[in-house]
Design brief:
2 domains; single chain; 55% helix; globular; Spore Coat Polysaccharide Biosynthesis Protein SpsA, Chain A
Amino acid sequence: MFSILIPTFMHQDTIRHAIASILRQSVQDFEILVVGDGAPKRTRDIVEEMGVADRRIKYFQFAKGLAHGELARHEVIAQAKGEYIAYLGDDDIWLPSHLEVVGNYLEVYDFVNTVQLTVTKNDHWHFYLGNLEDIHCRNKMLGSKFNFFGPSAAAHRKDSYFRLPMGWRPKPEGMWSDLHMWRQWLTHKEMRMKSIAEVTAIHLSDKERLNDSIEDRCQEMLLWLDNIKSDSFMERIDAKHKEYWRDRAMQGIAFKGLSAVIDRLFDSGLYEEAYELCNAVNESTTAFLKTTLKGLACLIKIGELSKAECLLETAMTVHRDAPAVYNYGFSIYMASNKFDDAVRVLEKAFALGLESDQLYKNMSRAEECRNNYSQALFYMMKVSHSGLNRHAEKRIEFLEGKVSACEKEWVDK
């Protein structure tokens, strides 16, 4: 279940249309918690009227707090019933898939963000790029005033939120409220964070619309709500997103080189474009290990597993001493449920004298899928002490139980 917070101050009627975009979500298991930070009576009247029609909508009134009323958000999260927390600006709009997309990832990650489409008053579309799994992006967010998504594109687990040192709190002077909050997640070593390369949130930039009447703002939101009902318009958003980042990536070639461009395309979810560039690089010169590996990753992402197998065979010849090639081979064959082939590839690595904790872990997984639990345990026991995290230790316990059960069954027979 999702608990969706909508902080609000002065926009009043726009909140009706923000909530309308929530009510159209493909996932309907949610509650809507409107956080009134000194909001006027009209806002409360609108929300309570909508709450009569839909009991999932609740209003929380607070006196105007410091900064953007961050402490009120913290208080409401403490009362939230949902396992997952999402946010929506009172003048922003979600595409119908937003909760479904972030929900799929929150089963694994503590904090996720999607791509935020910011629309200027003159209808210029801007897609912000970043990747929370990229250490350079994380350091930039921590060390400078840089942010690539707002609350409307963010979601997190509730239990993870309460592992933070403080949660939402007033921002320092000159700092953005959301970036101030994201930094708590970024500095927590145990948080699993993920950037999803899919547009799900529309941000109608408030700064450019300060002189617009509430009626004009509402009319613009209604137009967007009507447009996103159309499959062709949704396809246009997706095409614009890919076109935007393809152009931006290619502009970076002269400054950062092809490798950085490929990484940018990949991080933006443009796997086919990234693969084409990897392929062009490898065909025009001696195949580079990095572009070969990225090409394999792209093919796995787009499900072109037959192509991936062909590239793998070449890679095991050209880059035969690189353990990463064999680990990618494992991923390719496991995705095709070809467990014997996964074992075969890893055996080639061991025959060459290549050893790494990841190779051992992958071989253990492949042998387990073949129901060969004793071999699976054998390879897990070869993992070095530094590679034995909590998950690895649990796997060893699980495999020891499986081996014992098999031995008992053999004795009973």
